[in-house]
Amino acid sequence: MHRLHSLALGAVTALALVAGSAQAASLSREPYLQRVGTDSATVAFRLSASCAPTVYYGTHGSTDQRVTAPNPATKHAVELSGLEPGTAYTYVVDACGARTNPVTFSTASKPGVRRVHFTTVGDFGSNSDDQKQVARAMLGRAPELFLALGDNAYESGTEAEFQRNLFEPMAPLLAQVPFFAVPGNHEYETNQGQPYFDNLYLPTSSTGGESYYSFDWGFVHFVAIDSSCALGLAPSSRCTPAAQRQWVEEDLAASTAPWKIAFMHYPPWSSGEHGSQPNIRKQFAPLFEEYGVDLVLTGHDHDYERSQPMKGDAVAASGTRAPVYLVVGSGGAGLRDMSTSSKPSWSVLRNNGDHGYLDVKAEDGTLTAQMLTPSGKVMDSFTLTKELPPEPEPPPATADETTPTPGQPDPAPTPAPSPSPSGGTNPLPTGAETAEDLGPTAAGCSAGPAMALLPGAILVFAGALRRRRR
Ligand SMILES: [Fe+2]
């Protein structure tokens, strides 16, 4: 055969092979947003065949920028860098012939921005219809971020279960809402949580890597705790209880954010099936109290429960500032019986009759949380308040300044909140208009009207009737 002809045939063959492999590639796992910060974001996904994909992205709905993975592979986590804070970005994954539909997310707003909206829930990773409905409802709220409270992939957190019980049923949410997770006990059943760490791309801490970490989103400081590690279940090479506790203390002490929220799987306070975890409480409650954590978000028990503001092993004295503990374990696994027939005195409200999620909005000195079912029924509603110093005036615009980037405002960093005269949070000024509480309410924590619609005793009986095991 003539050499030139041979080369041409070879080129055609090579092109055919390339085209063939391109056609063979598809996304075996839809994109999910990880490690989203003020100036970067990771778009992770999996492919059915090895190739070097490109992520196209941009603002204002365009996708005029691109990052191409350096090497062919089936497992990808492509980092977008040089992003603007608090800004909407649209992205598309182009993987050798497979191209996703454009979707949009927002980067984290700067630490001084006094408006943050997030949703959270745990105990969902079951591929159940309830999980899908909860995820769909959360996406409908258009939160900036989503906190996953553990038991993200039943039954044992295997690689296959992460695919089937987390990424597939929650794909639309995870493609558009950055999510930050903590591991549950079920993830720890496989190789001490290794598939969890293999599949997620989380912020890291100096001593614990991805096991525990913190990040700021606007004026909220979030601290993620590995409660299985706290119980001594992690390999010491990854995480030890002592190192984690020390890091949490140093991290909280260093934060000047006006709002501080901790999240982990095991609940320090719960009257659900498994009950309170005194070991976890002993390790972290003193830190939460000393460094002004406002909310502690947990799961594990398959119900919803809200505590009074708690100090030590008791309800905090009226008028003092103390953390409120929530169990939000109603994300999709079967709901469970409570461990006590009547509501403990420290418990404000509990519900094991509905699946649902928590929707939280912090704006200036007011944090408003709603526990919602997928159909929009409000299971619980409460507000925390505190005094913040006046927001600094933005500097006057100069003549050569260009039009600001769309997104959230960009004020100067917010100083730490000034203590109220009592040293605690302040009562909700409008509480008398909205609250019809079921028990004593500490300063700074007011219940909304929905609580009156769902008395705890009725909820317990409703839950007992639908007893299911997971
Ligand atoms: Fe659990």
From TrEMBL:
Keywords: Glycoprotein, Membrane, Signal, Transmembrane, Transmembrane helix. The chain crosses the membrane at residues 447-465. Residues 406-420 have a biased composition (Pro residues). The keyword Hydrolase does not apply. Residues 118-304 form the Calcineurin-like phosphoesterase domain. One of its GO terms (molecular function) is acid phosphatase activity. This is Metallophosphoesterase.
